[in-house]
């Protein structure tokens, strides 16, 4: 489904390819991916109203507190969409503030569709000048990896990245993702292999990553040829620590060096105090510093 990478055309919003920018950010700030998830329960825990004013205070406080210290900031779009157009306006501000603080913004939208609809999603999130354009987005390949072609093309042309759902950590995902199609291997492995084809020859890393839950069982996937980033949600509150990451993703010569452990609740529960949020980020970064990379 992927073709050799063409020269960048008319890139104004970003400079250079996503894989190279991500590698540089991780080298400077470490691999932690900090989520901005304005979950209703967290709004209550911060003693904020469940309205747009509470959303705005929560999201911007969290972004301003952590975005200057992490390589990747990951807003979860659904929690903003729940408030309609006013919530989307807050999301636009979060994206802009995160990038202004030097973080790469990975917008967690999990979009997946076909044809012109997928092209419209790509225009919304992966096109220079779009109000919701981020450095990368999450996408779902479960209408077929080929359905992602408009997003793959838009990302290639604009220097942005994709993270493709492969082996998610939710229990219901296993039935589909670990299914074995007639050609052999699992569905999840076929997604990893398609992403690897997109990243072939890229240095220091490709632009097409995969999502693999940090709480999954070791040995389900062969990630050795991916040559791209691995978003690993579940670090922290869901129970995965450095030892689990090392078991799942291998040593420094394996895919572990490409892993972005994602943490949301474990950090956000320390708000609304900005200093406490920053301290939670440092604690997570210190824990990850023990990993061989």
TrEMBL record:
Gene3D superfamilies cross-referenced by the UniProt entry: Aldolase class I
SUPFAM superfamilies linked: Ribulose-phoshate binding barrel (SSF51366)
Q: Which GO terms describe its biological process?
A: 'de novo' pyrimidine nucleobase biosynthetic process; 'de novo' UMP biosynthetic process
Residues in domain Orotidine 5'-phosphate decarboxylase? Answer: 31-280
**Which sites are catalytic?**
110 (proton donor)
Q: List the residue ranges forming a coiled coil, or say none.
A: none
Lyase found in the keyword field? yes
InterPro entries membership:
Aldolase_TIM, OMPdecase_AS, OMPdecase_type-2, OMPdeCOase_dom, RibuloseP-bd_barrel
Q: What is the reaction catalyzed?
A: orotidine 5'-phosphate + H(+) = UMP + CO2
- The record's EC number reads 4.1.1.23
Pfam family, any one: OMPdecase
Q: In which pathway does it act?
A: Pyrimidine metabolism; UMP biosynthesis via de novo pathway; UMP from orotate: step 2/2
Q: Extract the SMART domains matched here.
A: OMPdecase (SM00934)
Q: Which UniProt keywords apply?
A: Decarboxylase, Lyase, Pyrimidine biosynthesis
Q: What family, per the record?
A: Belongs to the OMP decarboxylase family. Type 2 subfamily.
Name of the protein in question: Orotidine 5'-phosphate decarboxylase
Q: Which organism is it from?
A: Prauserella shujinwangii
């Amino acid at each position: 489904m992927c073709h050799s990478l063409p020269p960048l055309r008319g890139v104004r919003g970003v400079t250079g390819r996503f894989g190279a920018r991500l590698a540089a950010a991780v080298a400077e700030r470490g691999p932690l991916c900090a989520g901005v998830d304005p979950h209703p329960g967290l709004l209550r825990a911060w003693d904020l109203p469940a309205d747009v004013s509470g959303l705005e205070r929560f999201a911007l406080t969290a972004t301003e507190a952590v975005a200057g210290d992490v390589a990747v900031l990951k807003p979860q779009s659904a929690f903003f969409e729940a408030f309609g157009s006013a919530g989307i306006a807050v999301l636009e501000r979060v994206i802009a503030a995160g990038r202004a603080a030097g973080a790469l913004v990975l917008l967690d939208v999990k979009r997946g569709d076909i044809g012109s609809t997928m092209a419209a999603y790509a225009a919304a999130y992966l096109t220079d000048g779009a109000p919701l354009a981020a450095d990368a987005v999450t996408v779902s390949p479960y209408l077929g990896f080929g359905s992602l072609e408009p997003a793959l093309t838009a990302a290639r042309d604009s220097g942005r990245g994709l993270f493709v759902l492969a082996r998610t950590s939710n229990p219901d995902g296993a039935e589909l993702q670990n299914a074995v199609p007639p050609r052999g291997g699992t569905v999840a492995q076929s997604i990893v292999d398609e992403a690897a084809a997109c990243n072939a020859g890229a240095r220091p890393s490709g632009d097409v990553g995969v999502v693999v839950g940090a709480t999954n069982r070791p040995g389900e996937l062969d990630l050795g040829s991916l040559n791209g980033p691995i978003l690993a949600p579940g670090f922290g509150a869901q129970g995965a620590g450095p030892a689990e990451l090392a078991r799942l993703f291998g040593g420094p010569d394996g895919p572990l060096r490409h892993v972005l452990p994602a943490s949301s609740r474990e950090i956000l529960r320390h708000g609304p105090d900005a200093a406490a949020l920053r301290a939670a980020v440092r604690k997570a970064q210190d824990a990850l510093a023990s990993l061989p990379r």
